[in-house]
Amino acid sequence: PEVILLSTPPFERIRDIKICATNKLPVLVEKPLATNMREARRIVNYMFNKNLLLMVGLNFRYLPVTQKYIKLIKDETVGKPSYAKFVYERWRDGKLNYLNKYPLRMDHPMLWEQSIHHFDLIRYIYKSDVKNVYAQTWNPKWSMYKHHTNVFALFELKNGMKINYLGTWQGSYKKLNFEWRTECEDGVIIQKEQFSDLNYNKKNSSRLIKVPLKKITMWRYDSELLLLDFIQSLKDSKKI
């Protein structure tokens, strides 16, 4: 093989990465990269020292709704962003046949399997890394998961943005409740569905303006773009 798409459970990730590196293979790895920061740093440093490309498959970046969200902010359609609220409330039945079962027993399943996507999008869309964060995780008494399925976080980004985040996998209502609302100088941007329904509103107006989005086949379209990005990164790294 020329590359490895690594989608094994994350518990022995450093072992799997070393096998790939021994064979001098670049790796596109499924998130989470690791289940703790110490091992994540070990993996990154290991691949860096081996001069091999390592990329984490965070596919939500490639969705049309994500790209349009970025454009609204870049074009300052409703002015510069100031602060935001990100809510993801879901009942996730981890025992369903088509789902991986390891999240049922891993530490911080919501954080490492779901919130990681949201935190990446926050950094990606607002074009800034995190300066400060206050966070708590916990597990409701009725949870089917061994460890914490609720995540609360308050972020301050280096560019001054502040984001209030709440995510859960064990909400008591089975319908997904999603809202990503960004308050800007001249209005607001609101995403009402996880992969669609993007709107903006001019200040002093009660009318939401819906943003047209390209129709796609979910999980296929974004995965194709992720793979193309990985291939391009390989080509670019060979030029250095």
From TrEMBL:
PANTHER family in alphabetical order: BILIVERDIN REDUCTASE A
Species this protein is from: marine metagenome
Pfam entry (one): GFO_IDH_MocA_C3
Designated name of the protein: GFO/IDH/MocA-like oxidoreductase domain-containing protein
Start and end residues of each GFO/IDH/MocA-like oxidoreductase domain: 68-186
